[in-house]
Amino acid sequence: MNPFDVEAIRHRFPALGLTHAGRPIAFFDGPGGTQVPETVIDAVSRYYRESNANHGGSFDTSRRSDAIVDDAHAAVADLLGVDADEMTFGPNMTTLTFHLSRSIGAALQAGDEIVVTGLDHQANVDPWLGVARDRGLVVKTWEPRLADCTLDLADLEGLLTSRTRLVAVGWASNAVGTINPVAEVARLAQATGAWTFVDAVHAAPHLPIDARAVGADFVACSVYKFFGPHVGALYTRRELLEALPSYKLRPAPHRFETGTGNFEGYAGALAAVDYLADLGVRYGDASAASSRRTRILAGMGAIRAYEIELYRRLAAGLATIPGLMLYGIGADEMERRTPTAAITLEGRTPQDVAAALGEQGIAVWDGDFYATGLIERLGLAPSGVVRIGLTHYNTAAEVDRLVAALAEIASAGQATTSAATARLV
């Protein structure tokens, strides 16, 4: 096993060579969409050069295209620990969830109950509110503990009844980084006969995922969050995939993939998964002869180990900045969080902070990132927070640069506040 070589990894991502005002851009915007390696870019362009055709043709380009589509389903299935025929591809996780919610709702009866959380991205809340409105269902909300932005299993137990049919939960919070106990959630749901729908969009770039092992019935993710193109992917347990009502064109071969797919994007998705598998050979404990699933797990393990230490460095630096508030689980419990920090700075709006960082070539996000319910519960709407998302291609030097910039912004904000107070006095 070789040491994790972040500089070698960075050379595989062309966008990391971009500059702003003569300085390299530091990309801390990963939770909104990561950069992609050269191999992904090549796979997309190669599809257009060699395989650009629609599905099912009796000629070479169509056959090559169909093979790529099949291989991409198998690759993302390997990422999630499931089988290729249990995968559905679409534009993104949100669209897929709305699409499947229609079928799931058709299998439920008026008065049946759905549990959502106050921690999740709205993509795993609003589809269920909509189907409940249409079908006469009851929606209950599993409220987060705001002190550390976590979900308590005891609170979930109090919501489950014999009428509960679905529990919708995130694998990890895209706003504050909380990793939820999805296996325990699924176990409690199964005990009442309910299905579990897991949003793994934020977890997929950071954690090894095994949908079957945790007992989830549905697991959704978006490839553009783990170093690939704009493609959504959804695992559905085979028995449900075959049994749920399907809204499709009569001759379409897949029950839940409607219309012509983004085949070039699927080629990029295949390359993105293979990139993660390659990291498992280079920096993990897998060999080139290992199964792709084994190599992926090794790659994600290497990513996780590196990101944990990088986040600890970030958290330590943030703790030195007066007036900075960091939300969520502390760095001393990294097993319960991703390397994603949500912060506010006294005297500065999140948008002001993000803009000031952007002027220095540092990319972060501000707002609520569609985790609208959580931001409202924290009393931070509508401005939200500044979100710093570390990925495995970030460096310690970039983290130090970010911390120094935030300290400067905080100091300027405090000086402005002091001057204003002095004028009032």
How would you describe what is shown here?
This protein is an alpha/beta fold and 425 residues long. Helix content is 42%, strand content 15%. The protein is built from 14 helices and 15 strands. A 7-stranded mixed β-sheet has the order 4-10-9-8-7-5-6, with helices on both faces. Helix 11 (292-318) runs parallel beside helix 14.
- What is the CATH architecture descriptor of the largest domain? 3-Layer(aba) Sandwich
Give me the side-by-side strand order of the main sheet: 4-10-9-8-7-5-6
Main sheet properties:
7 strands, mixed
Element-by-element helix/strand order: HEEEHHEHEHEHEHEHEEHHHEEHEEHEH
Strand content: 5-15%
Q: Helicity, in percent?
A: 40-55%
Instruction: Give the N-terminus to C-terminus distance in angstroms.
Output: 64 Å
User: What's the overall average pLDDT, rounded?
Assistant: 96
Radius of gyration: 22 Å
**Number of helical stretches of at least 4 residues:** 14
CATH superfamily of the largest domain: Type I PLP-dependent aspartate aminotransferase-like (Major domain)
By CATH, the topology of the largest domain is Aspartate Aminotransferase, domain 2
User: Could you tell me the number of beta strands?
Assistant: 15
| Poorly predicted sequence stretches spanning 5 or more consecutive residues | 418-422
Shape: globular
The CATH class of the largest domain, by name, is Alpha Beta
Give the class from helix and strand content and strand pairing: alpha/beta
Please state the oligomeric state of the protein chains shown.
single chain
